[in-house]
Amino acid sequence: MPIDPYILLLLGTVGLAALVPARGTGADVASGASTAAIAFLFFLYGARLSTREAMDGLKHWRLHVTVLACTFVVFPLLGLAARGLVPVFLTHPLYQGLLFLTLVPSTVQSSIAFTSMARGNVPAAICAGSFSSLVGILVTPLLAAALLGSGGGGFSADSILKIVLQLLVPFLAGQVLRRWIGPFITRHKKVLGLVDRGSILLVVYTAFSEGMVQGIWHQVSPIRLGGLLVVEAVLLAVMLTLTWYGGKALRFGRADRIAIQFAGSKKSLASGLPMASVLFGAHASLAVLPLMLFHQMQLMVCAVIAKRRSRDEPAETSEAEGVTPSASAEASRTAVGTGTRSG
Q1: Which pLDDT band, with edges at 50, 70 and 90, does 258 fall under?
Q2: Is 137 within 8 Å of 171 (Cβ atoms)?
Q3: How far apart are the C-alpha atoms of 113 and 138, rounded to whole Å?
Q4: pLDDT for 154-185, tens place per residue?
Q5: pLDDT of res. 75
Q6: How far apart are CA 192 and CA 306, in angstroms?
Q7: Computed from CA positions of residues 34, 39, 44, 45, in that sequence, does the dihedral angle turn out positive or negative?
């Protein structure tokens, strides 16, 4: 099963923050740079999202509503139900991080990749991931304010203002400027991808440095981490089961069910880490830990499932969707190319 190299970089950044945390003036500089990096990240997210492609995907609205319901309704309900595991399996801070994990939007790139590998409806996965990211810009902070309350970092008018200025305004600016900077972003996609990941590493370093300076990591023991992993494994298993058999109950074809399963059961590390930094402040390190662990777990499990789905009888897909195998393959290749260009 695959180990995401980026997770290793994130863990290395956590180790660096543990050994050499930013203090004093260095902490102020790192915090300022982290704030700027978050704003730039969401500016790029807005500039990359093709509004036209997202609107074209509305034709398959039932599927997208299903994915959004899984991401922003079913996941949070399961997160709220996990409150009963405190304090036996989880400490309250770890539970706060777990609940935040359930509020984060779905992934885009990995949903597309696994759907394509499993021979599912790739265009639907592209649109579902894009819709989830777009909705999450607004819904995730609102859900966090409603469900986490003051325990999630002291939500106030000042916190809402920070969310608007650091997340929403840069995202909208990217959308407005997309028509002019879109070609530049396409030409320099690889370089900007590195900037993306580097910015997230900076956010993680700043968050974990603050946690180390304040000593909050003394609240986490190996036994608690083991309990967190068990809870997250159960959460992922429940969502993978619900998305697959729920899609069947709603009479979706096999290709659509694959897209629903991979887009509706995953959470975005790229969106969640910057959001947590804004929402939780000094407590962001414990808040992002469950998300980092869940991200790696979902990649490993979904890779196995996608390979298994790819060995299923391909005729089932074509018959369920009413298209020929060659037409379905051509649509997938076209959509993968579009998804790659749009990031």
Answers
A1: very high
A2: yes
A3: 26
A4: 455 566 677 778 878 888 898 889 889 988 88
A5: 97
A6: 28
A7: positive
Residue percentage of the chain with pLDDT more than 90:
26
- Phi, psi for 251 (deg, rounded to 5): 65, 35
Q: What is the mean pLDDT of residues 269-281?
A: 82
Q: Please report, to the nearest 10 degrees, the dihedral formed by the alpha carbons of residues 216, 222, 227, 232 taken in order.
A: 70
- Residue-level pLDDT at 166: 80
Q: Which long-range contacts (CB under 8 A, 24 or more apart) does 85-93 make?
A: 85/227, 85/231, 88/227, 89/224, 89/227, 89/228, 89/230, 89/231, 90/224, 90/227, 90/228, 90/231, 91/219, 91/220, 91/224, 92/151, 93/216, 93/219, 93/283, 93/286, 93/287
27 φ/ψ angles, rounded to the nearest 5 degrees? -65, -40
260 contact partners, CB below 8 Å, separation of at least 6? 63, 66, 67, 70, 128, 243, 244, 246, 247, 252
pLDDT for 237? 97
Separation between Cα atoms, residue 334 and residue 131, nearest integer Å: 19
Residues 157 and 165: beta-carbon distance below 8 Å: no
Half-sphere exposure of 235 (CA within 13 A, CB side): 34
Q: How far is it, in rounded angstroms, from Cα 104 to Cα 75?
A: 9
Nearest to 268 by CA among 250, 288, 254, 283: 288
Give the C-alpha separation, 69 to 27, whole Å: 39
Query: Does the model's pTM come out above 0.85?
Result: no
